[in-house]
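Subject: sequence -> structure tokens, single chain

Hey, anyone have a minute? Need the predicted structure for the following. Not urgent.
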Amino acid sequence: MGEHDLTALMAAQLDRHLVFPLLEFLQERQLYKDEEILEAKIRLLNGTNMVDYAMDIHKSLHGTEDVPADMVSRRAEVVARLRSLEEAAAPLVSFLQNPQLVQELRPDKQYNIHMLQERFQIGPDQIDALYHFAKFQFECGNYSGAADYLYQYRALCTNSDRSVSALWGKLAAEILMQNWDVALEELNRLKEIIDSKNFSSPLNQLQNRIWLMHWSLFIFFNHENGRNGIIDLFFQDRYLNAIQTNAHHLLRYLATAVVVNKRRRNMLRELIKVIQQEQHCYKDPITEFLECLYVNYDFDGAQKKLMECEQVILNDPFLGKRIQEGNFITVPLRDEFLENARLLIFETYCRIHRCIDIGMLSEKLNMSYDEAELWIMNLVKSSKLDARIDSVSGTLIMTTNHVNVHEQIIESLKNLNARTYMLGKNIVEPAQAAQQAAR
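Reply:
Had a minute. Here:
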């Protein structure tokens, strides 16, 4: 299933710290050799300050307790730099740790800066030092401390570009701490800035939207309302254009969200149109399943793609989240996708056939005959489908309601007559009232 792994494409649009959860997932699924994953982790860590973590991985990779001298010297540099930044930011950090003093801060940033300068001798240099200290903490893997300092920095910062940078850092920290509610708030805040800010070039704004969509996947596939969130965001014209311009692989996640979200099935037509337009740039079993079903009406092809979809979901870091339930491990999204995909196959097949062989339908649904018969029976009851099962012949018979065109025309005319009467009444009565008042 390595051919369908999107990690390389995703990593190019993520902060390097956000790539670690993806590598952890791939290591757990054993999609690649363990040595390859460990080497990838070390390459990532070389750009961070998590030297102790890099040392541990080096020991595990090479089966030794010795570490290279450059790692040891790098650790000493990190510790020295951390102490230096901590000293520079100490006056402001001390102020912010006093709740009574923090209460004196106001929404007016200029007032805050003036007040800090006058009363506590805390100036722009200390505020900048807080930003660098927070960023360094993030690079060290102290995401909680970084999130707090970045939040406080944004309350004092007057540099808009630096403030946006701090917001990206805060969002990454909240994602890594799995604070999904707070992360969603930061995501929406960042989206509002990206959509309203005057960028130096449209290309820069496009890139920010692409970054935002990639980072949002962590939130949308973990937050309780995430499946609505991803559909609402990705179907907005500006973001859908970004997907079609330079992030076609995100169609996998949009398609999955639409399939499992029964309340948003009205988006299927728009989704199918986009999948068709972009099939020359990107396709995977999930997009091909929908194309087989709704474009080609190829039920055999849809059946084959559905089996591939299961493997894609199981091996995708965002879709294949596992939950421990007692002695069993389940993949909720996999189960929901298969259930809803079978429902789509069933509905589409019933739409174009009147008499359906249950044995044949069970094959298309990847079920045994008994499972398919029970599944169809429950579906007919729950959805009030106008159909019946003939157990003797082993068929599902759809009841066709013939529409009486003449009755439809008569009913339409009745409604039109009633609306015309109300319209005339609304015009005549005010006119009559005006005439009486004039007399």
